[in-house]
Design a protein that fits this description.
This is ATPase AAA-type core domain-containing protein. Residues 194-314 form the ATPase AAA-type core domain. Residues 388-401 have a biased composition (Basic and acidic residues). One of its GO terms (biological process) is double-strand break repair. Pfam families: AAA_21 (PF13304), AAA_23 (PF13476). By secondary structure, this protein is α/β, with parallel strands linked by helices. The protein folds into three domains: 2-132 and 272-356, P-loop containing nucleotide triphosphate hydrolases (Rossmann fold, 3-Layer(aba) Sandwich); 170-267, no CATH class; 368-420, no CATH class. The chain is 35% helix and 20% strand. The protein has 16 helices and 14 strands. The strands form three sheets. Strands 7-11-12-3-13-14 form a six-stranded mixed sheet, with helices on both faces. Strands 2-1-4-5-6 form a five-stranded antiparallel sheet. The chain has a three-stranded antiparallel sheet with strand order 8-9-10. A hairpin with a 2-residue loop joins strand 8 and strand 9 (217-221). Helix 7 crosses helix 9, helix 14 crosses helix 15 and helix 14 runs antiparallel to helix 16 (414-420).
Length: 421
C-alpha cells in the first residue's frame, strides 16, 4: 500500500493542503518553521490510515482539530494497494480512497467517516491482511513508557501502530518482548536473519552490535566488548533502534515473519506500506542525520516513508521521494512541493547551500559575534583597497580571514548588509 494523494481542508491551522508525490516508495520529507503544521499534517494522515474506530480510542478533543471559525473539515487520502500483499474484499479495488470528516455541532465536534470511505473501510480499516501503515512520534525509546498506554499494543494492534505519534508517554518496548519470545516461538527461524540485519556494518555505530536474543533478554555489546543493557543505551541509539525494531515487529505481525526477508537475503525487508515519522532527526548526530534516509531506503526498499524534519541533512535522501514545504503562520503562500534549483541544492548541496535557499526560513548560519567580525573584515578589506592598512590592522585582517576562509575577500555591499541585519 502507498499514499498517492492527501487533501486536508480546515485542519488545525491549515485551510487547504494537497500533497501528491510523483513517486511512491522512497523518502518523502516535510519541512517548515515551528508552528507551520508539520506534526499536524502527519497526525491527520495517521488518523485517515487507522480509521475512525481506532481514532476514537485516542480520546482527542476533536474541536481542537478544526481550523478556527470553520464549521467542518476533512482529511482525504488516496491509496494504491498491492494484490500480492494487500487483501481486498470482493467490491474493493487496489485503488482506495478514505475520508474522515470533522463536523461542529453546538459545543461538540464529531469525527465521522466520509462517504468515500464506505467501500474502503473493510480493507483499509478492517482486520484483513496487509494495508500496512505505522506512525512514530518524536519521542522514540524503549524505556520509561506508560504501562496503561502500552497495553493497547495487544488489545488494539491497528491503533498501536500509530500510538506514539499522538502520545509522548508511549515507549516502544513491545519490540523487546517480541524478540525475547522469538527463541521459543513459532518464528524462531527469524532470529538469525534479524541478528544479521541489525549487525550490518552501516547501522549501529562505533562497532556496537546486538550480541544475543533469548528469553533471558536482549543483549548488546559495545566496541570495547562491554555488555550494554537496553536501558543504558544513549538517546540516539534508542531513537533509531526502537523505531527499526518496532517497525520490523509490526511488519511481521501484519505479513507474517516468513515473508519479511527474501530467501538468502537478510539485508533488506520486502513488504510495502506507509511509515510516518515525526522529527526523524531527533537525538541523531549530524553524521547519522545524513545517513538515516539512505539507510531506510536501502534496507526497506518497498516502504514509503513520510517524515518531518528541521535538518537539511535529512533532505539529501529524497532523490527517490519528495520534499514538501509548509509556510509559516501568517504567510500567504500555499503549501507546495520543493522543485527546481532549490530542490537540487537540498539534495546535493551542503548545509550552507540548503540554508541559503530560504526553504528553512530566512536565517544566517553565523552567530551574532561572527557577523560582527564579518562586518569588521569587510571594512578592513575595503580600507586595504583604498589606501592600505597599518601593521596592527593587517594582523587583525589576517586573523579574521583565518576564522572565516569562505568570506576572506568580503567587502561592504548590500548583500553583506542584508546578512548583518
Amino acid at each position: 500500500m502507498y499514499l498517492k494523494k492527501v487533501v486536508l481542508e480546515n485542519i488545525r491551522s491549515m485551510a487547504e493542503l494537497e500533497w501528491e508525490p510523483s513517486s511512491h516508495p522512497g523518502w518523502h520529507v516535510v519541512i517548515g518553521d515551528n508552528g507551520a503544521g508539520k506534526s499536524a499534517f502527519l497526525r491527520a494522515v495517521s488518523l485517515a490510515l487507522m480509521g475512525r474506530d481506532a481514532a476514537m480510542a485516542l480520546r482527542q478533543d476533536w474541536s481542537e482539530w478544526l481550523r478556527a471559525g470553520s464549521p467542518s473539515g476533512s482529511i482525504q487520502v488516496s491509496l494504491s494497494g498491492d494484490s500480492r500483499w494487500d487483501q481486498a474484499g470482493a467490491s474493493v479495488s487496489s485503488e482506495v480512497s478514505a475520508e474522515l470528516r470533522l463536523q461542529r455541532a453546538g459545543n461538540a465536534t464529531q469525527l465521522v467517516p466520509g462517504a468515500a470511505s464506505l467501500a474502503a473501510a473493510p480493507a483499509l480499516w478492517g482486520t484483513g491482511r496487509g494495508w500496512f501503515s505505522a506512525a512514530f512520534g518524536p519521542f522514540r525509546r524503549f524505556t520509561d513508557g506508560d504501562a496503561g498506554q502500552e497495553a493497547l499494543f495487544s488489545s488494539q494492534p491497528r491503533l498501536a501502530r500509530h500510538l506514539s505519534m499522538f502520545d509522548a508517554s508511549v515507549a516502544l518496548r513491545a519490540s523487546l518482548g517480541w524478540l525475547e519470545q522469538l527463541e521459543t516461538g513459532p518464528d524462531a527461524g527469524l532470529l538469525e536473519p534479524l541478528l544479521a540485519f541489525i549487525n550490518q556494518p552501516d547501522f549501529l555505530p562505533h562497532q556496537t552490535r546486538l550480541d544475543s536474543i533469548s528469553s533471558r533478554g536482549v543483549r548488546f555489546v559495545d566496541g570495547q566488548g562491554n555488555e550494554v543493557s537496553v536501558a543504558s543505551l544513549g538517546d540516539s541509539f534508542q531513537s533509531l533502534l526502537s523505531l527499526t525494531l518496532e517497525l520490523i515487529r509490526q511488519l511481521a505481525s501484519t505479513y507474517g515473519a516468513r515473508r519479511l526477508f527474501a530467501p538468502g537475503d537478510a539485508l533488506s525487508l520486502q513488504p510495502p506500506g506507509v511509515v510516518l515519522v515525526d522529527e526523524i532527526e531527533a537525538h541523531l548526530h549530524p553524521t547519522w542525520q545524513r545517513r538515516v534516509g539512505f539507510w531506510f531506503r536501502k534496507h526497506f526498499p518497498h516502504l514509503q516513508f513520510l517524515v518531518t524534519t528541521h535538518s537539511p541533512l535529512i533532505c539529501q535522501a529524497a532523490a527517490e521521494g519528495s520534499i514538501f514545504w509548509l509556510p509559516r503562520p501568517g504567510m500567504d503562500e500555499p503549501p507546495s512541493m520543493v522543485t527546481g534549483i532549490t530542490r537540487e541544492r537540498l539534495l546535493y548541496g551542503s548545509g550552507v547551500d540548503a540554508y541559503g535557499t530560504g526553504a528553512f526560513g530566512d536565517m544566517s548560519t553565523r552567530s551574532p559575534e561572527a557577523l560582527a567580525q564579518l562586518e569588521r573584515l569587510a571594512l578592513l578589506n575595503q580600507k586595504e583597497l583604498e589606501g592600505g592598512l597599518s601593521a596592527e590592522e593587517r594582523q587583525e585582517q589576517e586573523r579574521l580571514r583565518m576564522r572565516t576562509p569562505t568570506a576572506a575577500s568580503v567587502l561592504p555591499s548590500p548583500a553583506v548588509e542584508r546578512l548583518l541585519k
